[in-house]
Amino acid sequence: MSKTRLEAFSDGVIAILITIMVLELKVPHGADWGALAPLFPVFTAYVLSFVYLGIYWNNHHHMLHAAARVDGRVLWANLHLLFWLSLIPFATAWMGENHFAPLPTALYGAILLLAAIAYYVLARAIIAGEGPGSRLAAAFGRDWKGKASIGLYAAAIPLAFVREWIADLIYAGVALLWLVPDPRIEARLGGGRGGT
Amino acid sequence: MSKTRLEAFSDGVIAILITIMVLELKVPHGADWGALAPLFPVFTAYVLSFVYLGIYWNNHHHMLHAAARVDGRVLWANLHLLFWLSLIPFATAWMGENHFAPLPTALYGAILLLAAIAYYVLARAIIAGEGPGSRLAAAFGRDWKGKASIGLYAAAIPLAFVREWIADLIYAGVALLWLVPDPRIEARLGGGRGGT
Amino acid sequence: MSKTRLEAFSDGVIAILITIMVLELKVPHGADWGALAPLFPVFTAYVLSFVYLGIYWNNHHHMLHAAARVDGRVLWANLHLLFWLSLIPFATAWMGENHFAPLPTALYGAILLLAAIAYYVLARAIIAGEGPGSRLAAAFGRDWKGKASIGLYAAAIPLAFVREWIADLIYAGVALLWLVPDPRIEARLGGGRGGT
Amino acid sequence: MSKTRLEAFSDGVIAILITIMVLELKVPHGADWGALAPLFPVFTAYVLSFVYLGIYWNNHHHMLHAAARVDGRVLWANLHLLFWLSLIPFATAWMGENHFAPLPTALYGAILLLAAIAYYVLARAIIAGEGPGSRLAAAFGRDWKGKASIGLYAAAIPLAFVREWIADLIYAGVALLWLVPDPRIEARLGGGRGGT
Prior knowledge:
Four copies of one chain form a homotetramer.
Chain A: H1 2-20, H2 33-36, H3 40-66, H4 72-86, H5 88-97, H6 102-130, H7 135-140, H8 144-162, H9 164-179, H10 183-195
Helix pairs in contact in A: 1-3, 1-4, 3-5, 3-9, 4-6, 5-6, 6-8, 6-9, 8-9
């Protein structure tokens, strides 16, 4: 019951974030290609952030699905994650409207970094409630993907000031890394479910 | 369980899209008919898009209701559909504020086309999970309505540059085509349900 | 199942409408009472519309709770109601920002009228699905409150051009009329539930 | 059933409020630190309000979870709470954009005070439905924390005009007081659940 409401609230927040981002695609005044062209970087940033929020929703979905119960610590770890995700529309718009300038690109990476850390903390909080021998703990294992993402974001932030496109490549690369649903959890829990 | 959350998330996104569109009806400064009149094309475009989003929600509802289970592929096909739907408020506002000028009208058609293709892909992804002999596969059948919509949208895009009102007529016509709940699914599944 | 999703979607739309109205309370630039004062009519209109949307949510909640099933006709009657409700934030802001001028006040009444008619149509669509001998049909009975509201709104629209405050009084009065949960439904269904 | 929809609607409203606040973080035009700096007070106010809305969601969650049933009185007490919470984004933006000037800071406190009173009224309405001997009534007990918050907010409002930072300290202090999930309810109900 408790878990249902946590999922519903998180779904609500992520659904709103993913849609209010589109409000930054300001409707241009002209009706020709020239009016549409300046929106291209904002649109590109929107696509990237849409994919990221989709990935977070997807992974959140799988993780909560595998969790048996949630406690107060999980509720707050979840709100902490939602806080950083809530800044993605701002960072997206700032980066897009400034044509991927160094500082906005670095800030975008910083928000992704803090969201990734918050996700890691949330995963630990859920696993702590499940016990070290739980399926979810086994499914997460050493979590190389989460750790690699955190390392890559941390590297992208200073690199945004050297060559901005390297940071962009990193953001796009990490997104690709996560686009496939987590095989660790799918495999183990899928097998577990199949065996039940 | 998994399906419930997919439905809830999709409902959330569509509910937000359908309501943020109304924010483009900018409150006029004057308090007379003259102040209200310029909003008429924006309002017309709002009505059309409200109906389209209602149709998508309705059909999505029926299709998911008929699906027995969802997997990672369906989750992403669903996000892909939501992405194109999320651009409808932008396209609506741009078309409305420019009094249905050719390029905005063509862009509106392009978004509808991409959303229709995404819906088709989602339907295929769900049917692939259900198996070719499933009730849903039978209910969809040859899907002439989905294919006809795709063809009509594709025709409307160039026609918007010839005679803009032809494109509008096509958009309104396709909406009318879908306004009735899909008899294929209703009939077959309704019968199936009645027989159970 | 179907009913759950209809409720969830309606809740989502009403929740969003009730909250985006607050975006019309534009943050003033100064930090003194003089900066706050011009917001007073907008705030008053906000309170009225918040109460109206609360009433609709509340009655919608009771009516759907009493309904055994929903069909395609109910889905569309529900979307039709949501369409008119979606225009409440616009009408509220226009009325508030123009200090309850005649035309915006009349338009506000027109939206309330159309929403009330849409609610009536929705109730009929649900009752049609339940059958004339259903508890819901009995609970609605002659529906004097719904019909009185429609009559009062229809009277308020021309009166807004004569004496604007008469229309305001009518809107506030109808809201008071509905503020108490519908005793017809509560009594009959409450008794029915107690007897089960 | 009824409770589920009340929770879903409240979740929806709180989720939207928590996310539309971020729209007040207006995207700056420049791409350097100088463009970002003026957003700092708005961001600080955003963090405070995010925490407050998180606390309300969290406590609301626990309280409703413990409630066995809801009636019309609870529905309206809940809408009353949501009304005051809906003004938090406005008060947050006004306070943040005016760098915590006295009047906006006092208004922020007034909104917190009215929300706290509304929460108290909601708790009483739920307990009235549960009966005086219920677990929830026992769990709330003398409710020193709720009463202390109300007293502190009432004190902060005049203090904002004397030394504005004292009011800020009080708001932050009350938030810290509530950040831990309510041990009264957790302990009693947790034990009760364990014993069942």
